[in-house]
Design a protein that fits this description.
41% of the residues lie in helices and 18% in strands. The mean pLDDT is 94.
Length: 188
């Protein structure tokens, strides 16, 4: 196995657009937490940050995680526990980055995902090479109708979108996360 830099995942619930392109804080989805943490565990992520400024949503996520990591769910399904132990609930991406920096010596390279093409999209191979070179990466996914343009501009890189065989392009974030992880780290 190739020694890689550490990979971290973040699912950002604010600032994102709604379908009217208004900036909102989206609700957390139980399915996203379960499925992205399982994909992250499968591909070797060090942590999965659920980012929401809403205190009630952070409380909900902590309750869900507690059930599967400490409660009856931990005994019922140890594999699920192992995946959900990756989850960290934070109020902002800055908090996540500060925590990551405590683990290492430098901030991770931030890589934003988006369903829309951007003029400066970076390829999956380029991000894979960054990891293979030993740099840590924070792979950032948005919810709702996508991360705001202003947020995207703050990232080091914008990953090329996942595109299918048709013009339709509205994957669930958990499906997109699985595809992106496989393209970056899957065995070929």
């Amino acid at each position: 196995m190739i020694r890689c830099g550490d990979l971290y995942l973040a699912l950002v619930h604010y600032p994102v657009y709604n379908k009217e392109r208004k900036v909102i804080a989206s609700a957390v989805s139980n399915l996203d937490i379960h499925d992205i943490s399982r994909a992250g565990k499968t591909y070797g992520a060090k942590a999965f940050y659920v980012v929401t400024p809403l205190a009630d949503q952070r409380k909900l996520v902590k309750r869900i995680i507690s059930h599967w990591t400490e409660g009856i769910g931990a005994r019922y399904n140890p594999d699920r526990r192992a995946a959900l132990e990756l989850v960290r609930v934070v109020a902002s991406l800055d908090v996540a980055i500060a925590e990551i920096c405590l683990r290492g010596r430098q901030a991770p390279v931030s890589v934003v995902t988006d369903a829309r093409p951007h003029p400066d999209n970076v390829s999956y191979d380029a991000v894979s090479e960054t990891l293979k070179a030993g740099r840590s990466c924070l792979l950032i996914f948005g919810t709702g109708w996508g991360l705001t343009e202003e947020f995207i501009e703050t990232a080091d890189y914008v990953l090329a979108p996942v595109m299918g065989a048709t013009p339709y392009n509205h994957l669930s974030v958990r499906s997109a996360a699985a595809i992106v992880l496989d393209r970056l780290l899957g065995n070929r």
